[in-house]
Design brief:
68% of the residues lie in helices and 0% in strands. It is mainly alpha-helical. The protein is flat and about 55 Å long.
């Protein structure tokens, strides 16, 4: 896939994200920004980055030469599984399990990857759910983490 094609895909994806985010609204208007701001900001960044890839001058190098496809596919599969299992397993457990193949793709051992993922999942859960008051699913760990 060339950079220009990737850029065009990013522009289309950003337009779809922006279109989907238009319906996001808080049940109670308690903040001036609301839930639609973050997806729209991400869509704008993705769209601008995609436009840059489409419009920039060609460097002359062969596209994606030397890309480590196996680790890249492993990471993409882990993120897809994360998205599918997020609600069922909860944030902390899904994050820990996603970090296992991603960490191993970057050269970590399974023990390091699992320990790092467990720490990441727990710390981020506590930060978002308890400190920033962002409700995250707890899944099977609801009794331990004290959530829904």
């Amino acid at each position: 896939m060339s950079d220009r094609l990737l850029g065009a895909v990013c522009v289309v994806a950003s337009a779809a994200m922006a279109w989907a985010a238009q319906d996001y609204a808080a049940a109670i208007s308690y903040e001036p920004v609301g839930p639609r701001a973050f997806p729209l900001l991400l869509a704008a960044g993705l769209g601008l980055s995609g436009l840059w890839l489409v419009l920039r001058p060609t460097a002359g190098a062969e596209a994606f030469h030397g890309v480590p496809w196996k680790p890249t596919a492993l990471c993409a599969g882990a993120v897809l599984a994360y998205a599918l299992l997020f609600q069922w397993l909860g944030f902390a457990l899904a994050t820990a399990l996603m970090a296992l193949p991603v960490g191993m793709a970057f050269g970590g051992s399974w023990k390091q990857s699992l320990a790092g993922g467990a720490a990441l999942g727990l710390v981020l859960f506590l930060l978002f759910d308890k400190l920033l008051d962002v409700v995250l699913p707890t899944g099977p760990l609801a009794l331990l983490l004290g959530g829904s």
